[in-house]
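User: tokens in, sequence out, please.
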């Protein structure tokens, strides 16, 4: 066992864990963050995507020990605003029904948050599709997802909302 110190969705945790415990299993099994899902378990689908220190990562392909110091992780559950409202990206996906079966949607939203955090403002569809590779880009919903990403970008620009929490 090794000691893990991590902040998840703005709550600090200190846990003894197996050194090779995968981040997705820590989030789901220890913390109950079941919005982070396992789709392929082979680092292909992106359904397990979370933000690690503000950047999107596939939590099924990395140890929960992501390096020295305390890591800051944001899951889909942690995106909501302080008053409980949806994050602009969540709202845009919801408003415009950007999903196929919905299973991969949390990962798409987390990837979109990273993309929009790095590139505020409108994003061309081709760029969204290129940069969303590895987050279920093969499913038909990706087209509508890119349009929702545009909508979220507009919403965030209008409201000057924080891109990352
Ligand atoms: S479950 Fe992690 S990439 Fe598919």
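Assistant: Sequence out:
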């Amino acid at each position: 066992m090794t000691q893990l110190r991590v902040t998840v969705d703005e709550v600090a945790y200190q846990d003894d864990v197996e050194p090779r415990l995968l981040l997705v299993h820590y989030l789901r099994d220890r913390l109950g963050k079941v919005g982070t899902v396992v789709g392929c378990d082979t680092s292909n689908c992106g359904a397990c995507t979370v933000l690690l220190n503000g950047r999107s990562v596939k939590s099924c392909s990395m140890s929960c020990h992501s390096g020295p110091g305390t890591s800051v992780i944001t899951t889909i559950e942690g995106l909501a605003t302080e008053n409980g409202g949806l994050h602009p990206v969540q709202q845009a996906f919801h408003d415009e029904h950007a999903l196929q079966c919905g299973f991969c949607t949390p990962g798409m939203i987390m990837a979109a948050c990273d993309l929009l955090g790095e590139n505020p403002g409108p994003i061309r569809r081709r760029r969204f599709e290129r940069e969303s590779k590895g987050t279920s880009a093969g499913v038909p919903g990706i087209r509508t997802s890119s349009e929702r990403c545009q909508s979220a970008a507009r919403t965030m620009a209008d409201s000057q909302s924080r891109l990352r929490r």
